[in-house]
Amino acid sequence: MPDLVPWRADPPPARVHAGTVRADRLRVRADYPITGVALVLLVLQAVFLLPVFWQLDVTTLAVPALLAVNALGFAGLWALRERARRDVGRLESSYGDSERDGVTRDPSLVGLLAVSRERHEAIREEWTRAVTDPLALHTSTASTDVSDPDTAAFLESYAALEDLLAAHPDGLPPELVAVYGQDVRECRRLWDAARATA
User: Fold this and answer.
1) Which single residue of 10, 99, 101, 140 could bond 198 by disulfide (Cβ 3.0 to 4.6 Å)?
2) pLDDT tens across 106-139, in order?
3) pLDDT tens, 43-91?
């Protein structure tokens, strides 16, 4: 029985890499428009809630309580945004090149495999969304047209990745980890090219 690198082995402290679903979620949280959200909510509360408080004659108590709840909510949202910005900063500083889907600096096979798996999952999610959801961000006529050469090349690469996973359900032999990483990078390049032809 050859040595395997388990698919689900836990790498050292979790790393997030550009081009992955988790990295995209981090960037969304880092871009929360806290000030804009606060102004809109305060205006809506003034328009709809203040007349109700006035009619119920509870303005003196209700307004301070409402402002206190708002302050707590906005403080929590601000903390979440600042933490996401810090994580995005770490993501960018840990990156070795300027490409969207560059290589990881983690030298361990477990870490490299974990990053490659995350990128593979991101491609799978984007492709599934493009095929099943006509309103999805990644959907276009060209990117789902199997007669298009770019899409056909992507599907061939994607099928090879899926076959590799099916052939090694318990993990990859160490000598295939780097190969798998390169294949995932190539699959990402082909998928981006298929979408660019839209």
Assistant:
1) 140
2) 556 777 788 888 888 888 888 888 888 766 555 5
3) 999 899 988 888 888 888 889 999 999 999 999 989 988 888 887 776 6
Residue 2: phi, psi to the nearest 5? -70, 155
Rounded CA gap, 141 and 139, in Å? Answer: 7
Bridge partners (DSSP) of residue 59 are none
Tell me how far apart the alpha carbons of residues 75 and 8 are, in angstroms, rounded to a whole number. Answer: 36
Is 131 in contact with 158 (CB distance < 8 Å)? no
pLDDT reported for residue 178: 84
Note whether 29 and 81 are within 8 A (CB).
yes
Nearest to 126, CA basis, from 186, 191, 183, 189:
191
Q: What is the 3-state secondary structure (H, E, C) of the chain?
A: CCCCECCCCCCCCCCCCCCCHHHHHHHHHHCCCHHHHHHHHHHHHHHHHHHHHHHHCCHHHHHHHHHHHHHHHHHHHHHHHHHHHHHHHHHHHCCCCCCCCCCCCCCCHHHHHHHHHHHHHHHHHHHHHHHHCCCCCCCCCHHHCCCCHHHHHHHHHHHHHHHHHHHCCCCECHHHHHHHHHHHHHHHHHHHHHHHCC
Which amino acid, one-letter code, is at 146? V
